[in-house]
Records
---
Amino acid sequence: MSTKYKLSNPDSIFFITLTVVEWADAFTRRDYCELVCESIHFCQQKKGLNLYGWCIMTNHVHLICSAPRLPDVLRDLKKYTSRHLVEAIKANPKESRKYWLLWMFKSAAAKSSSHGDYQFWQLAGHQIELSTNQMLEQRLEYLHQNSVKAGFVEEPEQWYYSSARDYAEEKGRLEVILIE
């Protein structure tokens, strides 16, 4: 089975979910979330990634985005963040789950011939083409409510790693093209 993103219309806007292997809660530390944000920002600046909505949860990342050659951008984003997140976990003396997380990533890599020693992200990502305004608004609402439904915050804009702040007219962590 191919693990590449197959997008029916690569010029469209997509709802993308990147999931940590075994749904491991890897994004419980600010450093790891910041690494993902910096990587997304790089893709915005250098690879033409347009970001309309986003949210980092403890074990997955949601993006509403478009880009020329989006499958390549997503591949590069996953490859870069995977390598650097594993290194950050290894180097973090305060990471109490270090050996468990590394064991999870090593076990996942052992099942795949396309990975080195560690696999951070699940192979297949979840992607949905947002072909109507209704679909776009529905996914944006879903993405922003994620942290509320998980019980982390009372209001979506309270979650720092989300575009909900931008939509609430506050300064968010990443540049977002607001959907009117």
Note: The CA atoms of residues 9 and 146 lie 27 Å apart.
---
Amino acid sequence: MALLMDYAKALFDIAMIIAVQALMLAQVSFGYYRLKGEVPEGVTVRDREPLPKESTLSIVIPAYREADTIEATLRRVAQAASWPSRCEVIVVDAGGGDDTLPIVRRLKKELDFDIQITTSTGGRGPAVAAGAAKAKGQALLVLHADTLLPYAFDDRIIEALGANYACCFRFAVDRTQIHWKGLLRWLRLVPFEVMDRTVFIRSGFFQLPFGDQAIACRKTTYAALGGFDELARAPMLEDYLLVQKLRRLGKALGARCITQLGAPARCHPRRWLARPVWRVNWTNQVIMVQVNYRGLTPQQVFELYYGRRV
């Protein structure tokens, strides 16, 4: 009986994720076509000129209580870079107070890779801005501390930024962290497959990736789009605000400003293992509707999402 209940729950979750993701695509498509074009001051066509292959890529990793994931993320960066000498990593500790920083310091000594450490307070926006301020590279990659990059990520980014204002990787959940077995495993994985495919459409056709897809742009573009002022004040949704600016730029230019690279960045499934996939995504959709149609600020969203102030 318990097994039958598990199967029934899995089928219910599949039906719900299909409904939620269909609603997401409908909401995103409506929002995309009502979007108004705008060219921010300071953004020029020079931001789409080819980058020299030896350009430094600065990888900014905001970290808040990421002791469980930061080691795997940093090791993957070091292993996956095709040209490690042109990459630097800047880990920004956002004040979680766990073992994140000791782990980073150990890896800084152990890995043959340029790893810097800085700190910030106030949420993800200030953390990204603090890391970007220390960056030496022409190109910035903002990497979540629970996301694994694909091999040769640096080659892909440097090449993509020669023709686009920004780029991101294809979204995928790291299935190696999912340990269900048998038919139940297959059923439990279907919602992740649905999510992967609909996020691919959202990011490519509607130009709306989120931060767990490892968004990259030039440092000059990041600055011109408010990275060191407006975005730096956002405790969360700084990735969404950046992408919205890029989407408005694309509307104004009549071109796509964000290219989605074919290789996947694999995100740890911890959020969706704690709660059903559809429920997590439904919560996110409710928040995005509140932001787009009721004008909620990132500060208000933070309070709504976490139940506390920054």
Note: The chain has eleven helices and eight strands.
---
Amino acid sequence: MRVIRKLTEEDFEKYVPLIRGAFPDTEFDLPVTGGNLRERFVMAHNQDNSSEFYGLFEDETLLGSMRLHHYTMNVFSHPLPVGGVGLVAVDIMRKKEKVGRDLLSYFLRYYREREVSITLLSPFRVDFYKQLGFGVGTKVNQYRVNPSHFQNRGTKKHIIRVTELDQELVLDCYQRYTELTHGMIAKTEMEAKLMFADPDDHIVAYKKDGRIEGYLVFKFKRLCPEDNFSAYDLIVKEFIYETPEAFSELCTFLSSQADQIQRIILNTQDEDFHHLLVDPSNGYDNLLPESNIQIHQTGVGIMYRIINVPKLFGDLSDHNFGGKTLTVEIRVLDKLLPENEGNTLVHFQGGRASLLDEGTPDVTIELDIANFSSLIMGAVSFQKLHDYSLVKVSDPRFKKELDQLFQPVQKPICMTSF
């Protein structure tokens, strides 16, 4: 018989071989203790109250595991509790036995029972998680830029190297940015500690009048050490800024590294980032058809899943859905979580949503939970879903109003890795 339960300290003897088999050669974001991997996981298990480790057991044999994360996320300026899952691992001898599916099903119900309406994860395979109802979020673009192609405004007089005295100011800057940015996740206490724990990480910041208004976290990667000990790439891990002035001086700092750095590698969900750069080409000299220059590589970032549709609209009762006045019946299909499937009648008055127990809708829409999750998070427009035949509309005359209803000001931005 299969049982899913929270891991005990003794279970980590079984957990480490399992996780090593699932993620060989992976560096795990864990407390630095000087001990072995088991001790580091045990420390995270005991000290990080924002996460929990769970395992799927069959007759006390550990077949799979996952790490649940209790987060707070900015959802259209509403700080909502959300559930994240990471390190989903299955014993290599028990693949294709629905271990992962059972773990994910438990994960969804775990948070639904705690009245959370949104869950999220970083996918290892998009198709697998789409089948489980997770919708694609904002794309991530990786730039590989020559430092001299960042704009150099001629001054970086407010740029400092962050010391222990500045740590709280850095975290305050991140929190202010989170409060203004849809999709951002507040740093947990453990994440805040780990941010300053890696000796290979460097942090510089824009500091003015005793306040940090932007910062960079980065590390160096040596290139061809046997040939040239002084050639490096600079890998940006976190880039936060609140003002154009902070952004400008941080870009000037990056530009000034050109004498030693060959490429700055930066992952961003900013779709307009290429406008900043003198030359956004990635250095591979690849041409797309019709002589179009390749400027970045693109990947799928965070995937989202709504696990309680009526609860979500209750959570967002103060959000303005496009200023529209309209009554919509939303029919959601959810095979994995049938208690989330069904019809939700929502009346929008001047953009404010309220649930109705009964009534006649102006229009009915029908779509699966993955596409609904992408739509409600603002990762895709209603018009595009309709163009792709991924949503059904009872009356096509309402297509424009529905597109305006769900049109976000901003796509979700997430810088949290888990």
Note: The chain is about 25% helix and 30% strand.
